[in-house]
Task: structure prediction
Amino acid sequence: MRVTEKRSERQSWSSAMRIEDIRTYGLNESVMASGLPFALPDSIGGQTETHAFERASRLASAPIGTGHDNFLCGIIVQCTVTAPLYWWPQLQRYHHIDVVSSTSTMHTLSRVRDLAADTDPEHIELLFPYFSDKVHENVLIEFCSFCRECRDSGYSIDLLKANLPCGYLQTARITTNYRQLKTVYSQRRSHPLDEWQDFCRFIESLEASHLIVGVSP
Result:
């Protein structure tokens, strides 16, 4: 089927997730600060970078919750993530992952509604950029039909939101830190969702990621 072939062409990761514009801050400074508990005021600047990273690696391997890896809080990560709606509530259960800003269904659904309402079933691939590749074509066709009803009958936005497939893609800029990502990685690296597998691979790709995952990726 031509639609399925076009859909498969857009699969670069194991899911529709994209992680872009990645920035890391405070790595070297936090690694050096990991030695402060045993440092005297006149010896703070005397440590070598090699020694500091060796110590930081030992501290980072401490069990989650013991507090010995607290310096990881100072290594800040920011990135822009695009993922399906069903994935975001799972991410937001973590207290130290903040959404800086995100796309809003309230502000964009009217445009998506109009696009879907005008989309012919033979050209359903026009909606692929807005949905996970796991959303079946038949679901998108039904959504198009519903959007035509919404536009023709003047249905309210809450009804449209209530019938939006949870595979709809949402983009958000997030900020977090290495200590929180250590918890995420330990809990999600074996998760069945492809989105979590992609997110864990992203964690493995970060600079000095062994401080999070325990071994060099």
In short: The chain has a mean pLDDT of 87. The beta strands are 18-25, 76-84, 98-102, 169-177. The two ends are 39 Å apart (CA to CA).
